[in-house]
Design brief:
By secondary structure, the chain is α/β, with parallel strands linked by helices. It has helices at 17-50, 160-172, 177-186, 193-201, 205-221, 260-268, 278-286, 291-299, 308-317, 323-340, 366-374, 381-406, 410-424, 431-442, 444-447, 449-452, 461-477, 483-502, 506-515, 523-532; strands at residues 136-138, 144-146, 224-234, 237-245, 250-255, 274-275, 304-305, 348-351, 361-364, 479-480. Helices cover 50% and strands 9% of the residues.
Length: 534
Amino acid sequence: MTKRFQLPPIPESERTPLIQALLAIIEALAQEVQRQEEQIGQLKDEIAVLKGERPRFKPSQLDEKAGEDNLKGDDSKPAKRPGSEKRAKTAELPIHEERPVAPERIPAGSRFKGYQDYVVQDLRIRPHNTRYRLERWQTPEGQYVLGRLPEAVRGHHFGPILRSFILYQYYQAHVTRGVLLAQLRDWGVDISTGQLERLLTENQEAWHAEKHALLATGLDVSRQVTVDDTGARHQGQNGYTTRIGNAYFAWFQTTAHKDRLNFLRLLHGERARYAINDAALGYFREHKLPQRPLTALVSAPCRVFRKTSRWEAHLQRLGIDRARHVRVATEGALLGGLYEKGLAEGLAIISDEAGQFDVLTHGLCWVHAERLVHKLIPLNEQHRADQQAIRAQIWDFYAELKRYRQAPTEAVKAQLEARFDAIFTTHTRYETLNQLLKRLHRHKAELLLVLERPDVPLHTNDAENDLRDRVKKRHISAGTRSDPGRRSWDTFASLKKTCRKLGVSFWTFLLDRVSGTHTVPPLPEIIQARAASP
């Protein structure tokens, strides 16, 4: 922006008619310059979009997360930044060592008046190698008995603190293998590349089991979850990491595809189940499965399949071999299998309008809906004015939805439904905007799910935030190279994010599990306790 020149103040006695006229001309010219600068900035943004670059758009107000977004129309004051409250920063620190420090010179006749404390925080990073000398004793019968190693080091030549540190650095701090190896060797740890790899990816069954239990427990205690996915490369091929979770847990799984069939399998967790029941039949009819395969599925005596191979063999025996028929039948059977396993009735899935997530009770994210309007590139001032007017109405409506969640009533519900129709059936001078509004209006039931279910969130910000670590990993290391490595990344990402949501220190959790003390309860048990508390 051009630097504005400030005129010096002109006394009233010197403001002649000529001076007044010149001042008016200068002000008009200044306003015109400012208007043109704004247009130039908008044109630069539009050119950047056409060139495939990222424009410098003003962030959408729906993206701001403070409380649950500080939006126009919300009179509540934003909460303070976490940690900004004044507190005695060292009052609760455990003190490991005390060192009295005397003055350099104490004058004669002085009296001791106690201490003035000065607390210094530090770490001690040094190798600590232990030689266990297992006693060997020979019994009178000639047999030998041997001392037993502590459980935490049995089968390992690296102690629990070192193993926990390696996991923490790699999965929490995103330190690459090469940098981590150099760091450990600089500190005097004798470790090879292969040993480091095994510590990161092998013998992780206990971790994987706790990760899989997170999803089953999380879905069991929840009435709603938010979902999202992001790109993830594996063995040089493009794939996707899907995140399922809410305020209690976050669960990640990386797969090669991201269709609805894949998402339904993910909801099953480690073992999928296929069932032909009312839920499955409803899905078949909704997706217009032809009568012949529908009749074959209904007439077959076997209704529940606990292995994918048996379900696929069942479809072949029934002669269901067309790709679409197989897909719809499998999706419906997986949906039926979820209810067969005890999925809670009315579980809401809140997503960003990606088609693969449109199952069960589906709701849409308002931030993504408004972002579509925000990203339009207007062609003239009329388009721009209409775009801003619609965005302002959406912001106001969003704020009213938030207030409705706090105190839902039938009268307000009817008013909000009518206002939704008024906003999204508006005819503007911008045809692209008109078509977008029509498309959003077709999703009325999903955008207004909150009117029926005030417990559901209005956005998927938590899902996007949880996936940021995966995006960082992709930028640092491009992708995973082995199946155990991919599985371990999904597992530790799930455990780490869930610990954060539950207020459990991830370092404490790692050290507890590696050392075998198990003073930290299983995360699924903590989830159940949190969900049961008022």
